[in-house]
Amino acid sequence: MPKVINSQDPEFKTKSMLLFWSKGYNSVSPEELASKLEVSVSTIYNKFGKNHLFVDALQHYVSSEGDPTMESLRNASDGRDALKRIFYPLVDVLKDGTLPSSCFMINTVVELKTQMSEVNGIYDYYFSLLDRSFKEVLERMHRLGEIESLGRIPEYVQFLQSMAFGLSTLHKIKSKQELYAHVDEQLSLLI
Amino acid sequence: MRYKEFNSNRVLRTCLKLFWSQGFNATGLNQIVKNTGVNRFSLYAEFENKEGLLYQTIQFYLEHGAYPKLACLEEGKTDALMDYLNSFFEPNTFQQEGCFLIFIGTEMDASNHNINTQLKAYLNVLHAHFQNWAKPLMLEKESILINQLTSFYCSYMTYGLILPKVKREDYLQKCLNTILLNTRNYA
Question: Is the pLDDT of residue B123 over 50?
């Protein structure tokens, strides 16, 4: 009996996510996709399509990596330390090489920009999720007396957003200790 | 002496367009041959291999794209700093936005020593220019400001790629405000 392939199967999605995460969109050929996903090349062309598989993979990244991280940030009871618990592990995974590559989302932003319309919707969701979660933690910091001005929160949301993007380049040229110090310095700028 | 029948800069300009629009790994040597009109033997003789072409392309980009922009970084002026950062998003002959070094640094594996060395050297040059820019501000914690500007540069050249102009400039304004104002008040 032929194997029935369901592209919504979590294991299938994880395999496809890991491949696109490590190599990006453009340099993955249909042949390589077929081999990694254990399907025929014609299945890739006729049933799924590379674009569609990529969008599913990125979506899977958001729900398996982004959503839980941001949820833990929103559910925390502390402020600046909760942010450290997000950024320090980010430094760790970037430096330890335990991920297929740097942040899948940032790699996609740089590689595809806004060229693929289906991906733009995922950007919107992901970056507004980050905005919303950062805003919540900053408001908590204000209540805890860690930052003074409520009025500057929209500015700080953007600044926190920029931290992750900065790290995705800086980790290639700085040591772990330098990066921890860098994160500390950045978080201490929120006053 | 063997007569060189092609112009290296013209080859590098074409490579820059190809690498920057579709990435290094997705660009095949056949495509480079087709687009430059130079056969692979001549390319190998001049640049050794595809990696060699990339390293020379980076140098070409620095000389013709990135370094000339530094001229507008007039000391101490916030507007000049903003103009400098925004200049990477203005229409240019390479038909791309952002910074090629950051683009290629993002694509290539973190363990690629040659790319990391080039990236580090470039960010050191930027660091020195930001230091010069910040001198008139006479900050006690100047090093913090310089580190933050370098880090923000990396983020603007990536996140900036997907933001529409108005949002991008708002992002720039807000982040610079945090960096410039808060390093001044840094205790």
Answer: yes
Per the CB < 8 A criterion, the answer to whether A101 and A111 are in contact is no
The predicted-structure confidence for B80-115, as pLDDT tens digits, reads as follows 999 999 999 999 999 999 999 999 999 998 888 999
B109 to A101: CB separation less than 8 angstroms, yes or no: yes
Residue B161's closest CA among A108, A55, A40? A108
pLDDT > 50? residue B1: no
Identity of the residue in B107, B115, B147 whose CB atom sits nearest the CB atom of A111: B107
CB of A22 within 8 A of CB of A32? no
A interface with B, Cβ–Cβ < 8 A, is: 23-24, 26-27, 94, 97, 101-102, 106-107, 109-111, 113-114, 120, 123, 152, 154-156, 158-159, 161-173, 182, 185-186, 188-191
On whether the pTM is more than 0.90, the answer is: yes
Rounded to 10°, the helix A153-170/B100-107 angle is: 60
Which residues of B touch chain A, with CB atoms under 8 Å apart?
22-23, 25-26, 97-98, 102-103, 105-107, 109-111, 115-116, 119-120, 123, 144, 147-148, 151-152, 154-156, 158-159, 161-162, 170-171, 174-175, 177-179, 182-183, 185-186
pLDDT tens per residue across span A141-152: 999 999 999 999
Q: Where are the alpha helices (DSSP H) in A24-152?
A: 30-37, 41-43, 50-61, 67-75, 80-96, 104-112, 117-143
- Per-residue pLDDT at A98: 87
The reply to whether residue A166 touches residue B151, judged by beta carbons under 8 angstroms, is yes
CB A160 within 8 A of CB A83: yes
The rounded distance, in Å, linking the Cα atoms of B155 and A170 is 10
Residue A62 to residue A64: CA distance in whole angstroms: 6
ipTM value, please give it.
0.94
Instruction: Answer yes or no: do B162 and A154 touch at CB < 8 A.
Output: no
Closest chain B residue to the Cα of A191, Cα to Cα: B182
Q: Tokens 């290639």 appear where?
A: A172
